[in-house]
TrEMBL record:
Residues 15-118 form the HTH hxlR-type domain. GO terms for molecular function: DNA binding. Gene3D superfamilies: Winged helix-like DNA-binding domain superfamily/Winged helix DNA-binding domain (1.10.10.10). Keywords: DNA-binding, Transcription, Transcription regulation. Pfam families: HxlR. This is Transcriptional regulator.
Amino acid sequence: MKTIEKEAIPTTEECAGSLRNILDALYVLNGKWKIALILSLVQSPKRFNEIRKEITKISPKVLAKELKDLELNDFVKRTVYLTTPVTIIYEATDYSLTLKSVIRELSVWGEQHREKVKQSMRK
């Protein structure tokens, strides 16, 4: 690995591996709602309509699809209670917690980006 000003430059193989890893992550977490849904459910388990009230701009159809995708990838657990009417509770799995540092870094970057945009608009 080469270095430029004390920073390592990845090799072609390392870049290809990183790219594959990033594409895999983005494939699973694609769309603008998945991370928001995980954050919502990490706070507490919720019913479908509770999620809709918290994430107001998501349509019911998209919410259902995103929850199903997250369940298939083991980020969300869906529990059905045979009450009248049937009660369905969604909750974040332990696997969702593996995204904690990723979500924190995205939050920090998002705040920095918002400030950069504000500064650009002032010029």
